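call fold(seq) -> tokens
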Amino acid sequence: MHLKAEDEPDKVPFPWHLGVYDAHCHPTDTMPNVTNIPAMKSRVLTAMATRGQDQELVAQVADQYCVKSSDTSNLSTEECVVPCFGWHPWFTHQIYNDMEETPPEPDSEDFKIQHYISVLRPQPDQANDLEFLSSLPQPRSLKQLIEQTKAYLEKYPTALVGEIGLDKSFRLPEGPPSEEAKSKDPHMTPGSREGKGLSPFRVHIDHQKAILMAQLKLAGAMNRAVSVHGVQVHGGLLETLRESWKGYEKEVLTKERKKINKIPPPPPQEEEHDEASNDQPKPFPPRICLHSYSGSPENLKQYFHRSVPANIFVSLSAVINLQKTTSSKATELIAAVPDDRILVESDLHIAGEEMDQKLEEMVRRICVTKEWSLEDGVKKLGDNWHRFIFG
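ret:
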């Protein structure tokens, strides 16, 4: 489709009235700004939890602003958040895996030290790194985390699981937050890097996978979508997702086999049974969003193979995908995502004007690349968000 100059997405007023939906953001990182959400131009924010300090904060925001049903055509001003509960890979070292057996004395200091020695790489030395290990929080139970997340999902029927995933590049911060960092932004929710230097330690990828798999399984059991983080581990992330849906792959028949088999359509009662069975709980999420996807367009194709039993979506953000180092790849990446699977996100931590600005910037870029008019693009992206959230 060739657009006239006056119709080009970067030259026309932005149609906020059609509904713009942020597929991934972190407004609870700056709680004083949460009250800005109802006045934002964006219609709904998909608000992520990431760590121990923000799970209940997301629940508090949901109590006030949660979208209550899949009918988003007539939302009240106060229905402007879809809450998400999950444990981000940056904080997976704070979880011990007790899904199969309960360790002895998990509240002891000795257990804590040995736990961190086992899940961090390079492996800390108990003598030389004791001060660092002691500064880390007492690890918490994965079983209890899953039970807590399940309770949140039951309380909020529109809630998702997120932010979860894998990250090979992240290193743990070291020591307590600096006084300078505290004074710079005293309203930031604790638990993030907070101006600390970086230690040499990363979370062992096998430990990250165990935490991710438990959350994927919960999302499948609750029939909820997930928002997934993946950095420098795109092959490993796909491998883990494949493991979650192993045995549930869709059968892909070649043209030759279709001709040979001449498979007749199932009788009506069988069709009804098949449709009903699709709603039954499975060990993997029905819908998966690869948030701020930074892998190659070529690798992305594997997520859309016809055998994949989950519906895969890709959300893009100006803060990640339109950086100077990534912007040149953005056009190719946008073009590689199917029109009905692309989403837009801010990935920002302060609710308000900047979130709206970054969403508009990303939407305009997508519409230019896809050769959509701005109104058509906003409508398509809204429809895609609705299908990702509600199915």
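The chain has 14 helices and twelve strands.
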